[in-house]
Amino acid sequence: MSARKTDDTSGAQRPNQRPELAALDDETIAGALTRMHLIRKFEEAAEASYMRGLIHGTMHLSIGQEASAVGATLPLEAHDYILSTHRGHGHCIARGAEPKLMFAEFFGKETGYCKGRGGSMHIADVEGGNLGANGIVGGGLPIAVGVGMSIKAQKNGRVCMVFFGDGASNEGAFHEALNMASIWKLPVVFVCENNKYGMSMDISRAMAVANVADRAAAYAMPGHSVDGNDLAGVAAVAREAVARARSGEGPSLIECKTYRWRGHSKSDRNLYRSKEEIEEWRLQDPIRRLEDELKAHDRFDAPSLMKLEEDAQREIDTAVEFARTCPDPDPKDLTRDVYAI
Amino acid sequence: MSARKTDDTSGAQRPNQRPELAALDDETIAGALTRMHLIRKFEEAAEASYMRGLIHGTMHLSIGQEASAVGATLPLEAHDYILSTHRGHGHCIARGAEPKLMFAEFFGKETGYCKGRGGSMHIADVEGGNLGANGIVGGGLPIAVGVGMSIKAQKNGRVCMVFFGDGASNEGAFHEALNMASIWKLPVVFVCENNKYGMSMDISRAMAVANVADRAAAYAMPGHSVDGNDLAGVAAVAREAVARARSGEGPSLIECKTYRWRGHSKSDRNLYRSKEEIEEWRLQDPIRRLEDELKAHDRFDAPSLMKLEEDAQREIDTAVEFARTCPDPDPKDLTRDVYAI
Amino acid sequence: MPSETLEATGDVRELSYAEAVREALGQAMEADERVFLFGEDVGVYGGAFGVSGDLVHRFGKERVIDTPISELGIAGAAVGAAITGMRPVLEIQFSDFVTLAMEQLVNQAAKIRFMFGGKASVPMVVRLPGGSGTGAAAQHSQSLEAWFAHVPGLKVLQPSTPHDAKGMLLAAIDDPNPVLIFEHKLLYKTKGHVPAEAYRVPIGQAAIRREGRDITIVGSSIMARKAEAAAERLAGDGISAEVIDLRSIRPIDFTTIAESVRKTHRLLVVYEGVKTMGIGAEISAMIAESEVFDFLDAPIIRLGGADSPIPYNPVLEKAAVPQEDDIVTAAANLVRRGEA
Amino acid sequence: MPSETLEATGDVRELSYAEAVREALGQAMEADERVFLFGEDVGVYGGAFGVSGDLVHRFGKERVIDTPISELGIAGAAVGAAITGMRPVLEIQFSDFVTLAMEQLVNQAAKIRFMFGGKASVPMVVRLPGGSGTGAAAQHSQSLEAWFAHVPGLKVLQPSTPHDAKGMLLAAIDDPNPVLIFEHKLLYKTKGHVPAEAYRVPIGQAAIRREGRDITIVGSSIMARKAEAAAERLAGDGISAEVIDLRSIRPIDFTTIAESVRKTHRLLVVYEGVKTMGIGAEISAMIAESEVFDFLDAPIIRLGGADSPIPYNPVLEKAAVPQEDDIVTAAANLVRRGEA
Ligand SMILES: Cc1ncc(C[n+]2csc(CCOP(=O)(O)OP(=O)(O)O)c2C)c(N)n1
Ligand SMILES: Cc1ncc(C[n+]2csc(CCOP(=O)(O)OP(=O)(O)O)c2C)c(N)n1
Ligand SMILES: [Mg+2]
Ligand SMILES: [Mg+2]
């Protein structure tokens, strides 16, 4: 989905709809929905693969958070950059990664994005503008500052969007990065996916302010807190922040309030939250919410929505099959990629 | 100076004076002035010793910042803690350290506070509640959190006051420490001595907000910005913050706006600031300002003020003489203090 | 596990390594109210590796404290608590994250006592789960203990058995200095005999896990266990290997190693950290510069981690650190070389 | 300084080490607009040790960038700039402060290429003034280079002469990998011959500073200079010492050292970092496990920093690191021991 399309109408042709939704044309919406489905199906297949013993390490699933990944990246252009997190499958797919190469990575295959060296927590596609997931909470934040410095030095008009969690916003790296981006007016958009927990730590125990976005004040940068399960709402806020970044006005902090349906990782026994809470948030399913709204406005009918979902499922099924049959790396190549020559 | 004395009048007997000054009785004022003189004279003697080759390393002088060190610590009680910085001579003296043992340390002598192992940047007096200067910018901030945890666990009613500079407030340590102190409502008072520069970096280049105190909002803690060259003003704000900490309501952030007259350290050629700026700030001399105000209100006459200054000078002169004649450590004791047994 | 049964007294049970650590924590907290536990998800979650388990329910949230994700801050908090009368035990969730806390551990914890002329002490313990083998890739699998062995003022331990995990942790909590304990993640589920009482395993003493004549194999952490298994196989080939479990890497028990090498004339050192500048380098160098040098009949061989980050793919991951087979082969080669 | 005059071509001047570094920076920035310099007070202040000097006036504030005091952040910024086409050169004001930046250097810079399957590179340079001797005490005097020599993915240099300071920095800026350069503060004012053109000193090659027959002395950074001076004195006592300046500690030039030891049969390694787990441990271990072992006539002796933080008092401070006298004594003892 290109960002230009999303701005074509300003909702003029869709007067009954709230402006955030009206701003997105049908093609854009279809593309966004497809990506949300791909993310959801990717995660489900990842989980199933884990159960079937196809996966060696751990993984962090973002089911329930699809609107934030897809909405935030919607205004990005092809040459823009993202930096992602340990819970990064969604950001990858949102940025246009190929699920089959992601699965290949996930299965540790030589054909994977990182030739099986990185795995779930390190999927990257530098050529494609995805500068990598990160196993270190908050690890991408200072890197984003440097990317912003590059963009500024190279005057190439790009934008860098960096994702991180609510938990990450208590790392010193958060503070240093937002401060530097702000003083140098770097073209960086900081997107906090506040899913209420840093592993088992409820955000209300981990910080004294109500919103991560409140912290933007410490850097004199705009802070937006948005319903992270509302694709159109996230996209609207992101569009503003990306435009601001691109025009040289500096960084913004966006907080998407959302929720992860699954445990933090496979070792999580959900001792720190209630079934009721999880159930409540499942009712806020970002995909169903968007579909329902589109149907209510007669923009898409049920069969065409169903088709988007089925197509996504098929792509994921094919991707898993592709990945399973790919070759493992050769141990003799162990040190091949340590140094560039 | 005990804190109890400072609260005896609430200024009732000194109606013409602003409340911050009125709140301080004569004994308190005399004690505070003495300490400010001691700091000033200590720093001048330190500088002179450096010129005479008595000192081996570098040093960071706090001339011009005396009101912040003395004012902030004025409400502390004997058993309270402080943590200081690389520019820490003033905090030490304010907390009641003996100049002769400080000079002994400064000259690297076995009789110094740290037996000559620490030097200017590490003067500590753990028994006396001074948990140490710190060579690492922001290094004391996370330590203060742990001291706060101790106080809370031991329910001993103490308070920990930690000093740091404007430059330090851009370290990740600042963010992590203020956040933790806030969520746990620890009895910590964060005192930022904003002297406009972190070495050569003007605060307006180093951060985008106007005041360090503005950052308190990110931790839902009170933030006070105060004229750091006004002893009475600093003391008033500190009194409030210390009381808040002691009563279990949690930490505060105080910003004392002040200025260092000397260069950052001995290698500083003052290329980053103008003579005019330095001159302007010299007119804001915290000692003379206080003296003038006291004289204007007829609380002290010129001769008694002069005597305080002369006594301080004498104490410093004696201290230097004492320190010069003390023995160097014995190299065979090099590893003696590495491990506790 | 001969040394365990030897050292055990009183009521001895089979516990996992993780359970042994938890038991030590519980006993220390029961015995001394200055002791408290903190770190990310050590509370109701029970710790990322289940080590703290139910401790929060036994001791309450004031003594088993979940922290924000602020590694530098929590390390500094440990320092502050330690110098003012507490006995903090900090868990760094994965040892890789200690990269964020180096300042406080190295510049503050390790140096405060010295910088203050011996007038303060910093009795804190940091537990650091480390090592590869779980498919967690390059940023969650490192073995960084060698860095800390380079820092005067710290003590650094690598217990390899449930018995030592408990006894060394209790010794560390007693110790008036900052002690770092690297726990290999793959050891958490391994079982062994653990006495019920609160015993101490002294810091700075290696353990001879198996006596032998032909070669000394020094292993640390999980490699001590692999070395034991390898020695068993070597015995089948007629090679008598003495296996030393290093246990403490700062200080290092030079005497035990030196005596063994004096007897066997050959030394193989096995460790999981990157071979270059890993702890085996120090052991080799200590022996090579001592009088024991004259007793050596063959070069001192090190088996350490490959010169690469830890890869995700499990085949590569295994290839990146010494395996039992590698130890058997290296030991056999070394013995044969000495004989040729 | 024989090797310098040997390597020099064209216009050769006397420059200080600091001037040589500055010249390299200026030439790199002139030749390649991707190169930029940043760090705390590198701009109008000219750098804490005066290294950047007037560069901000020559290249402007966009390319010589003062940063806030945020070591983790600036290290990460270097990584981000490097992976997106720039060639950042970062100054960490004192190498001690790198303790705050380990995460980005070790988990990110060193591993990104590997974790991404070779699909990215991280061409960045970090300059780290280090070492003792200035009375700056324990938190401003460390020699931490050994830590980084333990990290695959990094390159680590310790030039000891103005000539190498310039040539190795230019090579580092060309290098597509993250390169850390530890500069000893006491070397900044030392002078030496420096060619005017932009030459490179290859990374990974040690330099033989003096040829000899009786003993090989390997020194790194300032200790290479002290070893040269010691060798001169030893010559007066009839001992012919070969002096090798290590220059690069990751990778280490094993071949040059091995060849020398094969000839002299004795090895003394001198470095300022704490002896235990310092770089001398690796050199000793490399030799002890190689075929060169059989050529050794005496133990491999290491002279390194004392097992203590660096003290403030100047007498203690000197006692804490190897001095010229120590080198002379150790070398003489070693040669005599071999002969006895
Ligand atoms: C520096 C660091 N500390 C701790 C961890 C372990 N860890 C991984 S994810 C996580 C929780 C992160 O919370 P948040 O930032 O809110 O992201 P979320 O998992 O909720 O998406 C923790 C503690 C880590 N990977 N890196
Ligand atoms: C972590 C760290 N970074 C850099 C330095 C070098 N340094 C010492 S003081 C200083 C400036 C500190 O500024 P500020 O916090 O405002 O305190 P001030 O010197 O103005 O009192 C710097 C950069 C240091 N000591 N520690
Ligand atoms: Mg979260
Ligand atoms: Mg300042």
Q: How is this structure best described in words?
A:
The complex is a heterotetramer, with two copies of chain A (341 residues) and two copies of chain C (340 residues). Chain A is globular, with a radius of gyration of 19 Å. In chain A, helix 3 (26-51) packs across helix 4, helix 4 (66-73) runs parallel beside helix 10 (231-246) and helix 6 packs across helix 13. Chain A has one domain (19-323): Thiamin diphosphate (ThDP)-binding fold, Pyr/PP domains (Rossmann fold, 3-Layer(aba) Sandwich). Chain A has helices at residues 3-6, 19-22, 26-51, 66-73, 89-94, 99-106, 140-154, 172-183, 203-206, 231-246, 275-282, 286-296, 302-324; strands at residues 81-83, 160-165, 188-194, 197-198, 201-202, 223-227, 252-257. In chain A, strand 2 (160-165), helix 8 and strand 3 (188-194) form a beta-alpha-beta unit. Chain A is α/β, with parallel strands linked by helices. The longest helix of chain A is centred in the first third of the chain and has 26 residues, at 26-51. Chain A is built from 13 helices and seven strands. By secondary structure, chain C is of the alpha/beta class. Chain C has two domains: 12-195, Rossmann fold; 207-339, 3-Layer(aba) Sandwich (Rossmann fold), CATH 3.40.50. Chain C is 37% helix and 20% strand. Chain C has a seven-stranded mixed sheet, sandwiched between helices. In chain C, strands 9-11-10-13-14 form a five-stranded mixed sheet, with helices on both faces. In chain C, strand 2 (35-39), helix 3 (55-59) and strand 3 (64-66) form a beta-alpha-beta unit. Chain C is globular and about 60 Å long. Chain C starts with a helix and ends with a helix. The complex binds thiamine diphosphate (2 copies) and magnesium ion (MG) (2 copies). One magnesium ion (MG) binds next to strand 4 of chain A.
